[in-house]
Design brief:
Structural class of chain A: alpha+beta
Shape of chain B: globular
Number of strands of chain A: 15
Number of strands of chain B: 31
Shape of chain A: globular
Radius of gyration of chain B: 27 Å
Strand content of chain B: over 45%
Order of helices and strands of chain A: HHEHEHEHEEEEEEEEEEEE
Largest sheet of chain A: 5 strands, antiparallel
Largest interface: A-B, 47 and 58 residues
Oligomer: heterodimer
Strand content of chain A: 25-35%
Number of helices of chain A: 5
Radius of gyration of chain A: 25 Å
Helix content of chain B: under 10%
Chain lengths: 283, 545
């Protein structure tokens, strides 16, 4: 018995010593320096679809996170606020309703989601993510920077021609391949509106006169896009023009606050966005 | 001539030796096969819609084939996994993949036991490390690596392992290694007490890409919220089981210093004076767990207590729900088996939980069994209530004739915490239940089960009834229905019927059911995930060989 107890005590002492020794391993690591500034230089323009809603208490933090990303990469992000039905009813009864059937269709098209706020980055399904939509806004910067480092396959230019009297808008999108793209390319066009003043729920209550930015107002193409071309050789370009008449201005559809967004993607099964572009309707 | 005769003799002798050796060590193969097939029938009235399986895929399946082999001291196994339009991984989406889900080779050399491949194991109760499989949730966090276990003597052993955690058909980007020592001590064979102490240590080293991501995330925070990521995180534990006469006492204390994980309740400062809730933090974590049991004279009492603080331990920090878990923290609520009593279950909280549970069972005479269970789960300061349950049950059994179970359950659950239903009131339920099992004759049995859940909130009140006919040795038939007797949200009351049959033959079991089921959660070992409403047919086959 005495031998056994001595055995136990010896092992306990060894174990505790080993733990203290091993735990100090973290002190052996060279401390990591956090980057002070800068970012990734890229000519890619990413489509970031932010799934949000006026009745979503956590969504203002998602929007704040996205705004921080836009501040860091102003030339690389095209943001679209998707007010699908979940938690998107007006926070105050009688105010403008930012939900649209197109927003709901995009939510259904992109599939699996857990809640809001979530965002999709070039509609890419990243490793270890349950779906295309990603929660935890803190982590969004990592997905943006992953995409900025990815290969730049095509350029996309967008131009608008707007007649204030007839409210007719012509959107011309021109895609130019930087690499040979040997599979079908689909084109998408939509209209967003910013500076919409409407209530927003947050963690503590309701924010009156909250300003909603880049809200999806109209999807001009089908949700899966329109087939633009079956393949595109390097250096070649292809264009498409869309025409749309803006609805009469009410609390929304203020032309000065609207912008057109275009993007090119692979086919519906893959959904991946190759390049995006944005332009204000009235400059 | 003589040389030829000699060569033939040696060849025959060699043949006799090898043939003889082969005859003494034959290859033993065993295994199992399990498959589930679902035919999805769209029913938007119950929410069984808007998911690929209901909208256009229509059929989904999962299959697992296990083969285990044993030869000449070597043990090995291989498992083939298949998922076709499966909703196990993500109930709101579709997953298709197939391949080798597991393989391993094991050999014992004297006192050393070596295994390579996909390893399942745990340290202590699993708080700092547990690798296991739970098919109902597609949870399989086996470690692809190497394990060595050395038997020091009959009472003591030490084991060590290293590898990467499995993620479906790939692996996560971190290396997990550990060492543990387990022992047993009893003064002598006639002693009325013994102890089984142990200790364990686990280290996780992130891959470069993970640390780069964490660095970028931290750099995006304001200075007061920033943290310095580590490549390495350690966790260690001490545990012991003390047996004294009819008492058994298990205690474990685990610590995990300086780990980075996502805290959904931490406040993050934003520019312009704003703030948001949820951010990555770096801090220490701990779990204290104990279980005291007494069993004698037809009485069984178990008292458990647990305190968890900041112990979210995963293979990668951006994972959530049941993905990438390295640790397993024991749940602190009764596992209920009836449909309505099991609807609400408190998933284990990794960051902030203090709980205790008391379970009492008493056998009165030959026929009666009484049991009472009480559990109470709160925040770490033991102030805010998360979950409370009281369950009382009486069983009367007349051998080979019938058995009656009567019970009642009362629950209080914070559905904002456990179900993500923000702004909704705590749910309080009272659920009486009844089960009658009658042995018609040697071959035939009839089981009737019924529950009523009284609930003024959330999904409202429900009634459930089931009839099951068993015709031994092959057949089981079942018919059940669930009906919403009261809906506080004014939704239309619907029936949720189920009809099914099971056929057993030898080592094979075949099942076919038509199911309509409401949305809920499915939990196993305290790990829960959303289970959406289901409408359609479910077929299953289970075989062992």
């Amino acid at each position: 018995m005495k031998t056994q107890m001595i055995y136990i005590l010896k092992f306990s002492f060894l174990y505790i010593s080993l733990i203290l020794f091993l735990n100090s391993c973290s002190d052996w690591e060279q401390p990591i320096q956090l980057p002070n500034s800068g970012g990734i230089k890229s000519s890619r323009v990413l489509l970031v679809e932010e799934f949000t809603g006026a009745s979503c208490p956590n969504c203002p933090s998602g929007t704040a996170e996205l705004n921080g990303i836009i501040d860091k990469y102003p030339d690389n992000i095209v943001a679209v606020g998707i007010h699908s039905n979940f938690l998107a009813a007006p926070a105050t009864v009688g105010e403008v309703d930012l939900r649209t059937p197109e927003a709901q269709a995009i939510e259904t098209f992109l599939g699996a989601w857990l809640g809001k706020p979530e965002a999709a980055f070039n509609r890419k399904k990243f490793n270890n993510q349950n779906g295309i939509r990603i929660g935890k806004p803190d982590t969004w910067i990592t997905f943006v920077e992953q995409e900025l480092k990815a290969e730049h396959e095509a350029e996309l230019k967008i131009s608008n021609n707007y007649d204030s009297t007839s409210r007719e808008l012509q959107i011309t999108l021109t895609a130019t391949a930087l690499l040979t793209i040997a599979k079908p390319i689909y084109i998408h066009a939509l209209i967003t509106e910013s500076e919409i003043s409407a209530s927003q729920k947050n963690q503590t209550g309701i924010l009156k006169d909250y300003v909603h930015e880049h809200v999806l107002r109209k999807l001009i193409t089908p949700v899966a896009g329109e087939l633009l071309i079956n393949s595109l050789d390097v250096g070649k370009s292809v264009s498409k023009t869309f025409t749309y008449i803006l609805p009469p201005q009410d609390r929304v559809w203020v032309a000065e606050h609207c912008a057109t967004v275009g993007f090119i993607s692979y086919a519906e099964q893959e959904k991946y966005v190759i390049q995006a572009a944005e332009s204000k309707i009235k400059r | 001539m003589i040389n030829l005769f000699r060569k033939l003799f040696i060849a025959k002798l060699l043949a006799l030796v090898f043939w003889g050796a082969g005859a003494q060590e034959s290859l033993l193969i065993s295994g199992g096969f399990q498959t589930n097939g679902n035919l999805f029938l769209r029913d938007s009235a119950i929410g069984a819609a808007g998911i690929p399986q209901y909208d256009y895929q229509l059929f989904g399946a999962e299959s697992w084939l296990d083969l285990n082999m044993s030869y000449n001291g070597f043990n090995g196994g291989i498992r083939f996994d298949l998922f076709n339009n499966s909703n196990l991984l993500n109930p709101l989406n579709s997953y298709t993949a197939q391949g080798i889900g597991r393989w391993f080779i094991n050999k014992e050399i004297d006192r050393l036991d070596l295994t390579v491949g996909y390893l399942y194991d745990q340290i202590g109760s699993g708080i700092i490390y547990r690798a296991y499989e739970e098919r109902a949730q597609l949870l399989d966090n086996a470690l692809l690596g190497v394990s060595a276990k050395y038997r020091i003597n009959e009472q003591w052993n030490v084991k060590a392992f290293t590898g990467k955690q499995k993620n479906l058909f790939t692996i996560y980007n971190s290396i997990i290694k550990g060492i543990s020592i387990n022992g047993f001590y009893q003064p002598n064979d006639s002693s009325n007490w013994s102890i089984a102490p142990g200790a364990g240590f686990v280290n996780r080293t992130y891959g470069d890409a993970i640390v780069t991501d964490l660095t970028n995330i931290s750099a995006g925070y304001l200075a007061k919220d920033q943290f310095i990521p580590n490549y390495n995180t350690n966790a260690f534990t001490l545990f012991n089981t003390l047996n004294y006469k009819d008492f058994s006492w298990y205690a474990e204390a685990a610590f995990k210093p300086d780990d980075v994980f996502y805290d959904p309740n931490a406040i993050r400062s934003l520019p312009k004076g704003e703030s948001s809730i949820g951010k990555f933090v770096k801090r220490n974590g701990s779990v204290y767990y104990t279980s005291l049991g007494y069993a004698a004279h037809n009485l069984g009492i178990t008292i458990e207590g647990k305190r968890t603080d900041g112990f979210d331990f995963r293979a990668e920090p951006q994972l959530s729900l049941n993905r990438g878990l390295v640790s397993y923290i024991p749940p602190m609520a009764r596992i209920n088996t009836y449909r309505l009593t099991a609807y609400y279950f408190p998933a284990t909280q990794f960051l902030n939980e203090m709980a205790y549970q008391v379970d009492l069972k008493y056998g009165l005479g030959k026929h009666w069994n009484l049991s009472v269970n009480f559990s109470d789960i709160r925040d770490i300061d033991f102030k805010r209530e998360f979950y409370k349950e009281i369950n009382a049950e009486v069983v009367y059994k007349k051998e080979e004739t019938y058995q009656i179970i009567l019970g009642v359950q009362h629950q209080m659950i914070d559905i904002e915490l456990y179900f993500g239903k923000g702004g909704e009131e705590d749910v309080k339920t009272i659920t009486p239940y009844f089960e009658f099992l009658y042995y018609v004759n040697d071959k035939t049995s009839l089981r009737i089960e019924s529950q009523y859940m009284y609930n003024k909130h959330d999904i409202g009140s429900w009634v459930y009834g089931l009839v099951e006919l068993g015709i031994s040795p092959h057949w089981i038939f079942e018919l059940s229905n669930m009906y919403n007797t009261f809906s506080p949200k004014g939704t239309k009351a619907l029936h949720y019927p189920t009809a099914g049959l099971v056929y057993n033959y030898g080592n094979n079991r075949f099942g076919l059911r038509y199911v309509k089921q409401i949305q809920g959660i499915v939990c196993s070992g305290g790990i829960c995930r959303l289970e959406p409403a289901f409408s359609g047919f479910r077929a299953s086959i289970t075989s062992t060989f």
